[in-house]
C-alpha cells in the first residue's frame, strides 16, 4: 500500500502514526468496568453533575470573571475560545479508543471483497477475532487496519458508513451505544461555557469525520468546530459529479505537538480554556497557558474504577504522566472523577430520575 | 532555503506554489482604475446595493425558499453553508493580489537585517523598486519573496506584523487603505445570508492569517471560518512559553482542486452556496453543484472598467475562462458588476449619503 511503502513523502507522519499505533497496541486485552447510578438536579445550578468543591468553584469563578466587563479578568467575546480533547475528556476511551472498534468492524465489513484477507495479516487476526495474534503483529498491523478502514471511499460515502456503524455498534462491556458513554458533567460544562459566549471546539487525535458524525447531536458542536486527525484526500470529477476521495495515506496526526499546530491553523486564536485528560493534550495545555491574561487549564483525572475506569501514569490508552506532573506544578485544575463528578454518564439521570 | 531545496518532501506543493507564482508574475506592470460614486438605500431592501434584475431576484428567491420549511427547496439550518472566495469576490484584486504588496513591504522591512539582499535577487529588485527586473526573474523570485515574507516569526508575531501593515498601507492607485476596497454588494449578501441562518466561510487562495486579520471586522466572519493557504508551522517551547513557529515551507495551497479538499477538511460539509470570480473557484463551484437538493453558484463577473476593472478570460490575476463557460452551460448565476451593482465600494455610500 502506498501509505506503508511511500515513506519519502511523509516520514514524520509515518513515525507519528506508528507511535499512535504503539500506544494503543498494549491495551488490546484490557477491559473491565462497573456502573453505579446517581443523579443530581438543581434548577439554579448550571453544573448539576459536578459536586461542590475546589474544581467546580474554580470553573465558575473563571467563567463569571471572564464576563465581568469592568473586571481584571474580563475576556472579550471573540477571544473566548475553549478547546476540548475528545477521547477520555468528553467520552470514555476504555478498553480501547472507540474508533478502533469501528476500524475492526469496517475490516469485517470489507472482508467479502477481499478473499485474500483470510490468510493475510492483520486481517486474518481481525476476522478470526484473534486479538492476541493481532497484538503480536506490532504497529504495522494497527496502521494497516486504520488506513484500510479509513480510506478507499468518497468522503460522503465514508460519512454514511460511520453513521450506520454508530446506529448499530455497542460498547463491549457496557453494551450500550458508544454515544451513551459521553460524560454528563462535560456536556454541562460545554453548555455552561457556551451560555457565557465561549465558542467550543473539539481538538482530538481521533479521526475528524468520525467525531463529526455525532458532535452536533451529542455535544452541540458544529462539524466545522471539530479538529482531528485527517487522511489525505483528493478532488475528483466522476462525470459531472465532484467528489472527495479518501486516500490510503495519513494527512495529519492531531496529537501532542500537532494539537497546538492545528489550533493555530483551524481556529487561528490561542484558546483561553483547554480541557484534556492525557499527555497527548499537554502541548495544547502549554499553548493555552502561554497566552496573556486569564486562562483555564483543566485535566480530567480518571480516578473512579467503580463508575468508570481508574488510570493515569501507567495506562497505554490515555496515559497521564508528564501532564499530571505539570498540572500539579503549575496549579492547573484537576477534575477528579471520583470526587468531583456526581454523575458520569447521561443515562444515569434517565434511569433514575429524581 | 529549505523550502527551495527540499523538493523531496513536497514536490506537489512546490509545483502548486510555482504555478501560483506564474499566474501572478505577468500582472506586475498592469495598473489602472477609475472611480465613480453612486449610492442606494431602501430600508426594506436587504440588498440595497444590488440593482433589480435577474441576479438579485435569483439570490433572494433561493434564500427565501431555503427557509420555507414546508417547501421543496427548504434547507435545514445545519446545511446552510455558504463559501466565498476572497480576492476578486469579496474585495478587489487589481493590479495585483493585495497580499503581494504586503510581501514586498515585508521584504523592505526586513532588509536592514539582510545586507546581502543589496546584491541578491529577487531582493535587490524589490529594494530598488525595479519591477521589470523582478518580473524577468521568473517564478523562483516570487516564491522566494512570498516564503521570506510569510515565515521566520512566531504565529503571534506574524499576526502583529500583518495588523501593523494594514494600518499604514494604501492601494497604489486608489490611495486608500486596502480594506476600503471590499465590495459593498457582497457585504450585504453576507449579512443577508447570515440573517437567514447561513453560516458564511471564506475559502481563499490567499494566506489564511492575512485574511483573518480583517475578516471579523470587515466581513463579520470569525477567524475560524476562514480557510486559506497555509505555511508549515511547528510547536516550540521557549522556556515556559509555547509558540507556533512559521517555517519557510508551504503547507497547503488552497486553490483550484485544493478548495473542495479544504472545504471537506475544515468545514466537513458540502456547501449549498458558493461565490467566486475565477477559474481558481471552479472546483469548489463544481463541488457545491454536485450535492443533492437546492444550491446556488454565483460568479462575480468583472465587467466594469469605469468603477473597478474589466477582465475575465485573458487576465493573469483572477482569470475567468473555463469557469465562465461552465457557468453559462450549467446556468450558474453571473453577477455582472456593471449592471448588477449599484454601488461597488462602501466608501461610495459614505461620500455621498442620500
Note the main attributes of this structure.
globular; 354 residues; 15 helices; 7-stranded mixed beta sheet; homodimer
Word description of this protein:
Chain A is an alpha/beta fold and 354 residues long. Chain A has one domain (2-351): Rossmann fold. Chain A is 40% helix and 15% strand. The first copy, chain A, has helices at 2-5, 11-25, 54-67, 98-110, 123-127, 131-136, 139-149, 155-168, 184-195, 208-219, 258-267, 282-289, 322-330, 337-340, 346-351, and strands spanning 81-84, 199-207, 226-238, 241-252, 273-276, 296-301, 333-336. In chain A, strands 4-3-2-1-5-6-7 form a seven-stranded mixed β-sheet, with helices on both faces. The interface between A and B is large, with 45 and 44 residues.
Give a summary of the structure in a few sentences:
2 copies of one chain form a homodimer. Chain A contains 15 helices and 7 strands. Chains A and B meet through helix 10, strand 3, strand 4, helix 11 and helix 12 of A and helix 10, strand 3, strand 4, helix 11 and helix 12 of B.
Rg calculated over all Cα atoms of chain A: 21 Å
The average pLDDT score of chain A comes to 89
Helix and strand sequence of chain A: HHHEHHHHHHEHEEHEHEHEHH
Global structural class of chain A: alpha/beta
Low-confidence stretches of chain A: 1-11, 19-41
Amino acid at each position: 500500500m502506498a501509505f506503508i511503502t511511500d515513506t519519502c513523502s511523509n516520514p514524520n507522519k509515518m513515525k507519528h502514526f506508528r507511535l499512535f499505533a504503539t500506544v494503543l497496541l498494549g491495551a488490546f486485552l484490557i477491559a473491565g468496568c462497573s456502573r453505579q447510578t446517581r443523579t443530581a438536579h438543581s434548577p439554579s445550578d448550571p453544573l448539576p453533575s459536578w459536586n461542590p468543591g475546589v474544581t467546580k468553584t474554580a470553573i465558575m469563578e473563571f467563567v463569571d470573571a471572564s464576563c465581568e466587563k469592568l473586571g481584571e479578568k474580563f475576556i472579550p467575546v471573540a477571544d473566548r475560545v475553549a478547546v476540548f480533547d475528545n477521547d477520555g475528556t468528553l467520552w470514555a476511551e476504555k478498553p480501547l479508543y472507540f474508533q478502533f472498534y469501528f476500524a475492526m468492524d469496517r475490516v469485517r465489513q470489507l472482508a467479502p471483497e477481499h478473499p485474500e484477507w483470510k490468510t493475510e495479516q492483520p486481517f486474518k487476526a481481525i476476522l478470526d477475532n484473534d486479538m492476541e495474534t493481532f497484538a503480536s503483529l506490532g504497529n504495522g498491523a494497527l496502521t494497516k487496519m486504520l488506513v484500510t478502514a479509513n480510506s478507499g471511499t468518497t468522503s460522503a460515502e465514508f460519512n454514511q458508513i460511520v453513521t450506520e456503524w454508530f446506529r448499530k455498534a455497542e460498547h463491549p462491556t457496557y453494551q450500550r451505544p458508544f454515544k451513551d458513554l459521553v460524560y454528563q458533567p462535560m456536556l454541562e460544562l460545554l453548555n455552561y461555557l457556551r451560555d457565557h459566549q465561549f465558542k467550543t471546539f473539539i481538538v482530538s487525535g481521533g479521526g475528524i469525520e468520525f467525531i463529526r458524525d455525532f458532535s452536533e447531536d451529542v455535544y452541540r458542536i458544529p462539524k466545522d468546530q471539530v479538529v482531528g486527525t485527517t487522511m489525505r484526500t483528493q478532488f475528483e470529477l466522476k462525470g459531472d459529479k465532484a467528489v472527495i476521495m479518501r486516500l490510503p495515506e495519513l494527512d495529519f496526526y492531531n496529537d501532542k505537538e500537532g494539537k497546538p499546530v492545528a489550533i493555530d491553523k483551524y481556529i487561528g486564536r490561542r484558546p483561553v480554556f483547554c480541557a484534556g485528560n492525557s499527555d497527548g493534550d499537554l502541548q495544547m495545555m502549554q499553548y493555552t497557558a502561554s497566552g496573556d491574561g486569564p486562562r483555564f487549564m483543566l485535566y480530567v483525572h480518571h480516578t473512579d474504577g467503580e463508575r468508570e475506569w481508574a488510570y493515569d501514569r501507567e495506562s497505554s490508552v490515555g496515559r497521564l504522566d508528564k501532564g499530571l506532573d505539570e498540572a500539579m506544578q503549575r496549579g492547573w485544575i484537576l477534575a477528579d472523577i471520583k470526587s468531583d463528578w456526581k454523575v458520569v454518564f447521561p443515562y444515569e439521570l434517565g434511569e433514575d430520575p429524581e
